[in-house]
Amino acid sequence: MHGHTTLAPLFYTKRLAAVALVFVAALCAGPQFDRGFAAEPEPPAASDTLWTATLKDTNGTLRTFEGLKGKIAVVYFWATWCAPCEAEAPLLKSLYESHNRKGVDVLGIALDNADKVKVFVAKHQLPFTVVYGGREAIQLGKELGNSLGGIPYLVVIGRDGKIVERITGEFKGGRLEGIIDPLLAG
Length: 186
What we know:
Number of helices: 6
Number of strands: 7
Distance between the termini: 78 Å
Strand order of the largest sheet: 2-1-5-4-3-6-7
Strand content: 15-25%
Radius of gyration: 24 Å
Oligomer: single chain
Shape: globular
């Protein structure tokens, strides 16, 4: 028992040294206190993920999205059973019709099956490209910053291929124009 008590201070000293070492390492690797906290790292540029993705359109044709390069792109993740998505479909249609000739494109990515997506697209007479997918579409959304996987999820991509804005959840009319119009002017 006497030997156990003589080892205890040595054990606690080593443990305290290990904790101090971890603390110092965290300080060196973490934000500098005099410069404020480091910003969250930016997700990859849209061109790193979107341009190389492939999903099927409502005709079953495998589509790529390289054609969006150099345009302002609104990428909208949605589902047919999503009430806010139903409400936003006319807003996206209107945006596409008023801004497409100015270099703005809309891409709808449905997290649903082809038959339901076809009915939705026909019902709302959506003039822009709509594709669908399961896991692939969810993964693409995550790669574009939708870490929670919620819908609706919208990404605005500038002409340079960089993500300008992300909106999780419902957006109101006029909000997209407020994001896009300055990009068209600049």
